[in-house]
Hints:
Strand content: under 5%
Amino acid sequence: MTDFEPTWGVGLSFVFVFSILGLGLGLFHFKVVDSFVSRKLIHIGVGHWWFFHLFLIKDPAWGLVGPFFFLGFNLLARQFGFLKAMEPGKGESNLGTIYFPISLIVMVVWCGWGGLPLWVAGAGVMVLSWGDGLAALVGRAWGRHPIPVAWTRKSWEGTMALMVASLVIVLGFVFAFAAPGATDSLWWAVAFGKVATIALAVALLEALTPFGIDNLLLPVVVSGLLVLFR
C-alpha cells in the first residue's frame, strides 16, 4: 500500500457521501419524498462509506477524517437548518444524525487500535444503515402494531424488517469474509443459528431504544456479538 492510497480513499469517500446528500436533497427539493424519507435514504446510503475504509483507506488515522468532518457538518446543519432534507419531522426529536458519525468514529477506533477486523465492523455498520433505515421506512408505511412501551413509537413490523435485514447482511459478510467457499453444511447450520441470534438481539435492541440511541449501539452490539460467537 502506497502513502497515497489513504488520501485517495478519503477523497473518493467525500465525493460519495456528498453525492448521497445531493441525491437526498434533490429528492426532497423536488418534493419526490418528504424529509423523513430523504433522511432515511441518506442514512442508508451514507453507511456505505465503510467500504471505502475497508478497501481503500484502512489507516485508522485517515479513517477518522470523514466521520469527524461529518459530525461537525451535521451539528452545524442541525443548528442552522441548512439541510432541510435531514431535519427531523414534526414530533421527532432524536439525535440520530449526530449519533451516526459518532458510531463510525467508535468503529474506526475499535478496528484501528482495538484489533476488531474491518469486515466485522462493516457488518455492524451495514446493519445500522440498512436495518435501522428499513425499520423506520417499513414501520412508517406498514406499521400497524406498536410496541407496547411508553418511550418509543416503533412497531413490530419495523422490528421484523430490521431483523430480516440484519440476518441477510451478517450472513453475507460471514460468507464473503469468514468462510468464502465453505461447503460444510454443519458449519453453516451453526453459523446460521449464531447469526439469527444476533439478528434477534439487535432487533429487540432497536425496538426498545429511544431518541436515536440505537445509532450508537447497533454497530457495536452486532460487532461484539460476532466476535463473541467466533
